[in-house]
Input
Amino acid sequence: MSPHSTALIVVDMINTWVMQDGAALLRQASRMLPNLVRLTASARRAGVPIIYANDNFGRWRSNLPATIEQARQASRASARIVDALAPRVTDYVVLKPEHSAFFATPLELLLKALKVRRLVIVGISGDQCVLATAGDALLRDFTVIVPRDAIASATAARTRAILKHFRDVMDVATPSSRGVRWR
Output
């Protein structure tokens, strides 16, 4: 594997949206989808590794094709997101059992193997899984960037609040997705 200084972590976007606040979260995620599609395309052009950190939905025998198909079948809106963002063969996938993409997953080892030191974290939910992943990344001395228009929480107000928390409390940069520089 060739070394990269930055990786894009896409959190929980392959989803059925059957959860507490799922319908509201799906609406918010659909609004930020164009920004996320543009950001993943930009990362691919720059040769930046893209790592999908996705819930295993409590299925310890789950596999990526089954997870993608389940999300695709959940609804038309879910299928639209999956079709726009499905991992490619060159991407990495980590199935996670809890909020943080680091908890009980090989993510830290993968990042070490890729020689990554800076993470751009996007996805849902900003005030839960993105927050937990960002916090764990900071504890591991990664530099963290959370593009303000590429995360979503169940409401716009909750997204604004967590972005303020990222900036003011965690000292995490929150540029627009267009402002992310890969090198």
The first strand starts at residue 6 and ends at 11. Strands lie at 6-11, 50-55, 92-96, 118-124, 143-145, 151-152. The mean pLDDT is 93.
